[in-house]
Amino acid sequence: MAFFVCLKRRYNYSLMFVIITFCFIELNNGFKIFSLSLLATFVYVFIAPYIKRTLSFNSFNSYIYMAVFYLGIYIMWSLNNDLTPQINYTLLVNLVIDFIIFGVFI
Prior knowledge:
The chain is mainly α. The chain has five helices and no strands.
């Protein structure tokens, strides 16, 4: 969500730190560099306008953006590594934790 907010409000310096954070996550998980940034940009440019156009719930859209981003991470992980039930469980728990943090604090 920080990526979306930085792009929408044109916070360029904050966007740079978000992309650097994505790079650290990518390097630790074995993804190609800038793959999460490209995934987040794809979701922002192509999927977010479609969701915004089809759904009338503005507060619900952010949860859908997060779910689509995690679906993209799941697909990237399945292309790079073997899928185990533990990884599936970990990604699901991370998604739920993000939903809770986003719901409580924002």
